[in-house]
Amino acid sequence: MGGAVSAGEDNDELIDNLKEAQYIRTELVEQAFRAIDRADYYLDDFKDNAYKDLAWKHGNFHLSAPCIYSEVMEALDLQPGLSFLNLGSGTGYLSSMIGLILGPFGVNHGVELHSDVIEYAKQKLDIFIRTSDSFDKFEFCEPSFVTGNCLEISPDSTQYDRVYCGAGVQREHEDYMKSLLKVGGILVMPLEEKLTKITRTGPAAWETKKILAVSFAPLIQPIHADSGKSRLVHLPPITVRSLQDLARIAIRGTIKRIIHQETMSKNGNGLKNPPRFKRRRVRRRRMETIVFLDKEVFASRISNPSDDNNNCEEIEEERREEEEKSISELKPDPPVNFLREKVLSLPLPDPLKYYLLYYREK
Fold first, then answer.
1. Of 165, 265, 313, 334, which is least packed with CB atoms within 10 Å of its CB?
2. Which CATH number applies to 65-239: 1.10.1040.50, 3.90.226.10, 3.30.70.100, 3.40.50.150?
3. Ranges of Basic and acidic residues compositional bias (predicted)?
4. Which residues does 184 contact at the CB level (< 8 Å), separation at least 6?
5. pLDDT tens digits for 103-119?
């Protein structure tokens, strides 16, 4: 699946193409896509294809095409504080993007069949939390992953506001998928070759909308144990945050508001004129001709039409070189993590500062 938009040179150009093609339509979805580089979730040998609008699969590892993920996120109508269940969570790329939107008071759970993919997803999540500048620009709902078949979720599990299934669902499993959803919730899944959005409008009332034609590998049927009983999947418990964690969220939020106010005040409500290139004046030069007469030397400026033509070409060449030099000198400043700088400047013990920074690397 994929190929709906042109490939990008980098993650931002890929997002620009998705926006232009109207796959990304809301600011929240755009911010999440830009914050996490798709290439970070590829194996090293396959990163050259990361910015193509194509699905990728290698062994048990799989990523859907960017146009599919963007349609899914738009259809889920994500908001801060919602609960989300990702069936077939894979590398954790989609779950991490959605976690940026859900915020610190959301719920973000994933079920993945393959244990090696779960370990890979946890590694990628740890790298994102420790090293990505995007982490400090959001309040993150960290995903939790469990291993198992998503068709064997324990019947006493909680229901969710938003559910996505990343494998093809047959009609016989439609009611099972619907049972995972709260009233008012949204389920997005590939149902019989159509990406489908189902909204639960009441205890037994549903609205269904077909989004686009897709081709997904089907759900893998459960393999029962020798006893004939299925192995139930127990989803992570929904826990209440500690007072210490709530204080960290509140302090970071306050610092971010202060930084925003300072930036707005400094930039005059954020409206700054874009940098303009200063073009240098190029002096026209003519070749001096030296004339020797006996023992006297006469200097004069002598030109002919061919000289003028050559001079014009040289002047134009100089002008281009000067402009190219000006452009190369106008490099963007390296990004600054203002939240980190503010926290480190606080009159607090170092252990508390690093707790506020989630012990992240610089």
1. 334
2. 3.40.50.150
3. 322-332
4. 161, 199, 200, 201
5. 999 999 999 999 999 99
